[in-house]
Amino acid sequence: METIFSQWKFNLGASLLFILLITFYFYLTKGKLKMGAAFYFFGCFLMLVLSLSPLHFIGMHYLLSAYMVMHILLLLICGPFILMGIPKETPNTSIKKTSVFFFNYPWMGWLAGIGLMWFWHIPKIFDAAFPKSQSLFGFYPLAFLHMLTLLLAGIFFAWPILGPHKELRAHPLVGLVYLASACVGCSILGLFLTFAPPTLYHHYFMADTFGFASTIKHNWGIDRAMDQQMAGLMMWVPCCFIYLSGCMMLFFKYINAKEKPIVIENNKLERRYS
Amino acid sequence: MMRLVIATEAILFISLMITYVYFDLSVGFTKQSINYLDIKSTGIFSVLLFSSSFTLVQAEKNYSEGKIKKLKIWLFATIVLGSVFLFGQAKEYFKLLNNHFNISLDVFSTNFFTLTGFHAFHVIIGLILLIIVFILTLAGDFDRPNSTALSSIGMYWHFVDIVWILVFTLVYVLPYLLK
Amino acid sequence: METVNVPEPEESLPSTSISNDQGLLQWISTVDHKQIGILYLLMSVLFLLLGGVAALLIRVQLSVPNNNFLSPEMYNQLFTMHGTTMVFLVMTPAILGFSVYFVPLMIGANDLAFPRMNAFSLWIGLFGGMLLYFSFLAGGAPDAGWFNYAPLNQRAYSQSSGIDYYCIGLLLVGIGTVGTSINLIVTIIYYRAKGMSLRKLPVFVWMILINSFLIVAAFPPLNAALSMLLLDRQLQTHFFNNTSGGSPIVWQHLFWSFGHPEVYILILPSFGILSEVFQVYSRKPIFGYSFIVGSGIAIALLAFGVWVHHMFAVGLGLTVYSYFAASSMLIGVPTGVKVFNWLGTMWGGSLRFTTSMLFAMAFLVEFTIGGLSGVAFAIVPIDWQLTDSYFVVAHLHYVFVGGSLFGLMAGLFYWYPKMSGKMISEKLGKWFFWLFVIGFNMTFFIQHILGIKGMPRRVYTYPDLPGYTWMNMLSTIGGFLMSLSFLLLFYILHKSYKIGKPAGNDPWDAYTLEWTVSSPPKIRNFTELPPIYSYRAFRDLKENAKNNKHGK
């Protein structure tokens, strides 16, 4: 018998994205594998697996909370992993340029991450981002765009913190503020989702094409209201927990770092983030 | 310091906006917003407020280059634009009050007046600060570019503008787009 | 001695030129951070007396069942004023007093970054407090509890103007508090001595820095809520009025998204004070500096993610509760880390049991009790059973008094010689300590049991149920012991100031920069500073001197 957990479905958009990302890597390095490539490929692979998995299926058709877990994983796990695998030295200077850009304007990364997350949760846009038919090999530009931008947002968001050029990362204490404020941004969104009326997103009220609705409702005990609350809380609490862990890591990195002997320069540095 | 002041003010506005959205989601403001509010005239006044940010940037630029005469002109322009925006707000308030749309009418009016009123209050504070700086400039206290007063006030003014972008989007534009 | 120049504010400060002999006028017009610090502490004492009297009246009313000593209306006003006063007008000014006094001294600065704003913050805070108390004369004090739930705070249920004074008073107090916090942050970031990077900041200053950020972030929701409430009451708006579409829950969310961080705002400075006190009286640098600071940051960040646990009885849904139960328990972790840091500091140190150290050690016990009953509340079914009972009262007093106040007392006895220039009487101090600890535990420990037995809080009297009478009587006796101990404290402070032995610069053989200057410090704190190699600059200096002597 088919259970909901055996719903591995082919996803053209995600597969295309996977191929694109791999091609991009080899384009960057002119066909060589560099240090940290494993991170990159792990990130891509995780993205692919996630979007073929039953989690994606449930998120697409039944549960907002599953969809939210997908989001968080894409944004906060896949993105940073891919970023960590981006090689530092490449034949062309685009990576270096990006690092310099985010060094000068770290808030752009913040805006990319938090802004996009907010954007895709505006109810109308949220509902529009779902594929309209169930055909396996169909290509849905908006759904593809959704995935691509989320992944890119994850990468750009993490750039000032984990970017490939260590000397062009934000100061750890700036990073702390960066992550803490991101936590606030995503808390507020989570708060809305948690306390908003459950009719917010129409998508999940559609017809039950696959016949799992009663399993979810009766065996799992999750109804629409609870689902949306779980989704909001997912974004609010565990998501923030990831940010806060990042904050703590940055802080300990800062406090345990060796002090530079030149005092004056040090003072200058501190003035920057005040 | 100004950044910290702005941070704490920002959280105040976030609280107010969250309240607005909370009631919006539970009661539904879209209909009232479209019925009562005049997006066109307020939109025009908003554009004036946004442009005051650019004039202030010009003022700051000229100040750092030591062009005091241009500084005075741009400062004056900023003050005028800010005042015109306030005038627009007042006009809208009067119109609403004449239509018996006052703060204690219902949940929407409560939230509308509180949110926009708090913003208008901040515009007034910004204007007072700008006028003080303008008078001091006329008195010759700002002849040399070594004071941070202008850039601090600038930061505040831009913040007030950004808040208005958010409030305007929330109260006027979104209901209009999503109706 | 190798020295470093002290960063000096570039413009001259107003009124530092007024000499010390101008009496009261000088205190009123002062912008010196030390005098303002002392004024803050005096303000705290003033309101402590007022809030304490309210508490005693409450305890007298509750000492026997079916008592008619206070009317229910009066009782409501008194517990509201007691809570509000103690949180906003006693603890907060005491913390700010120690902060504005010692932060500049510990980082080698001569004043705060904005001395005039410092004075403004103090006076506006005091004005706010006065306004709150003026409500007694204006027809009745606020009477809806210190967290002032809607719809009780609406005009229909509270007709006197007390709650309007509550709104305006707390708005002003909030402005003052936020102003001082901004002042402290700017001071700590820009006015540190050369060479004192943030890695070499004393723990107390770190905690104040974190705390100030917390204040800047936590007060705006309160201000928003207070403004809305004022509009509700004055202009008949509909924010919290559930009969016309408003939502009382919004008040709870806004209030607790301030209120929970406020709990940490009151406790973090005490953590900082204790970290200094434990080091000095154990003759051993703090164990795990980076962990103690890091856990402070973790507490501050987590503080904003747990406020819903105050609302477990509202009916927001089990899903919500399970998440917040988990995150609330999580916050116990960094607090536990700190306790182990302090134990590790004492471990193997040569301890000196001064009054200050006794308070610090008692803190560990009392605060752990408060923490444990707090973790118990994070478990939702227990919360449902015990919420709004005397168990809550016991818990919050163990946290506020057993936690914050014990820390502040440790700080008072530690820093008194520096502030007054006189040694404090240790013998009387220990009397005070024991009297206070016994009185405190007698008052509040029994309330755990009363709560479990089901006595509700905020009800002006109770029937003669088995056990209720003697437990309440015991609690009242404890309350009187506590107030007696406070009278003794004021006597000690006064007497030590009059006839105490001169303290000298460094009576405790302490570690941080404030002990390098005279006691009390001159108007200009520093003319020269030792070089700064770590967060315990003064100790490094003394160790170096010792080593050089032995070397020669």
From TrEMBL, chain A:
Pfam families: Caa3_CtaG (PF09678). The chain crosses the membrane at residues 12-28, 37-58, 64-86, 98-120, 140-161, 173-196, 233-252. InterPro entries: Caa3_assmbl_CtaG-rel. The keyword Flavoprotein does not apply. It is found in: Cell membrane. It is a multi-pass membrane protein. Keywords: Cell membrane, Membrane, Transmembrane, Transmembrane helix. It comes from the Bacteria. This is Cytochrome c oxidase assembly protein. It comes from Pedobacter segetis.
TrEMBL record, chain C:
The keyword Transmembrane applies. Residues 27-533 form the Cytochrome oxidase subunit I profile domain. InterPro entries: Cyt_c_oxase-like_su1_dom, Cyt_c_oxase-like_su1_sf, Cyt_C_Oxase_1, Cyt_c_oxidase_su1_bac. It catalyses: 4 Fe(II)-[cytochrome c] + O2 + 8 H(+)(in) = 4 Fe(III)-[cytochrome c] + 2 H2O + 4 H(+)(out). Pathway: Energy metabolism; oxidative phosphorylation. It holds the Pfam family COX1. It is found in: Cell membrane. SUPFAM superfamilies: Cytochrome c oxidase subunit I-like. Belongs to the heme-copper respiratory oxidase family. PANTHER family: CYTOCHROME C OXIDASE SUBUNIT 1. NCBIfam families: CtaD_CoxA. Cytochrome c oxidase is the component of the respiratory chain that catalyzes the reduction of oxygen to water. Subunits 1-3 form the functional core of the enzyme complex. CO I is the catalytic subunit of the enzyme. Electrons originating in cytochrome c are transferred via the copper A center of subunit 2 and heme A of subunit 1 to the bimetallic center formed by heme A3 and copper B. This is Cytochrome c oxidase subunit 1. The gene is ctaD.
